[in-house]
Amino acid sequence: MSFPYAPAVANSVVFSLPPNPIEPRSSRRVQIHKIYPVQAYLVGRIHPDLFIAQPLQINIEQEEDETYIVSDDLFLVYGSGRDQSEAMKDYVLSLVEFYQLIKKNAALNPFDNQLLTHLQTYIQSRPLRGYDAIQTNRD
Amino acid sequence: MPYKPIEIERMLTGKLEMVSKDADHIWFSLEIDGLPPIRTKLPNHKDDIREKLESRIHKQLRIRKPFFHGLMDCTKYRSDYIKQIKEDPYPPFNILFV
Q1: Domain segments of chain B: what residues?
Q2: Rg of chain B over all Cα atoms, to the nearest angstrom
Q3: Strand, coil or helix: what is B38?
Q4: pTM attached to this predicted model
Q5: B35-83 confidence digits (pLDDT tens)
Q6: Measured between beta carbons, which residues in chain A are less than 8 angstroms from residue B32?
Q7: What is the SS3 assignment for A108?
Q8: Which residues are CB-neighbours of A111 under 8 A, at least 6 positions away?
Q9: Cis peptide before A55 (omega within 30 of 0)
Q10: Dist CA B7 CA B43 (whole Å)
Q11: Average pLDDT for residues A57-75, to the nearest whole number?
Q12: Chain B nearest C-alpha distance from A19 (Å)
């Protein structure tokens, strides 16, 4: 499963052109450097039963050893991996686990109950079959 | 010097007496009267925990980097941790309840 996310800011990408005007046009190259941390928004389905109800801002960072960290500043969940895709998958898995932990404990702990209410403004339960059925009816 | 996940796990379960729950990741939790539960997890790999990853872990524990290092290096104890998160959790708990 892949997880859609979009860059939140345009300045995460820098274009640079060699300044030499004599250089033949064909040899010019556009270099793209990503400057970390990059901010992005997580959207869409994250689990067969769960989807993101409103875009959740995430940070993508790179360590010195070139591994990646994806995290959010709202629920303090993180994921890590050898590349961005692996870190994103780990983040989404962690977010789903976090949601399930809070939901399970919400009846026992008033703080978790309050946190669950806040989490559900971002993450909502909607089984895949029902979601597909709604889409089919709309069509 | 970076810590290994196993060293952090020993601190969480040994020193802070956090309870672990298995999922795809192992989550550690600690419930203290009057405070929201503290939850953290460790990465699945066994490599050194680098700076940015470490900062995510001490944020989940609601403490700053020097305090986290104090816990790891045995200059801080469970009682210090509980006092710290009661008096000055960082980031503060209300960040969750905006």
Answers
A1: 5-96
A2: 13
A3: strand
A4: 0.82
A5: 999 999 999 888 899 999 999 999 999 999 999 999 999 999 999 999 9
A6: none
A7: coil
A8: B35, B36, B37
A9: no
A10: 12
A11: 94
A12: 35
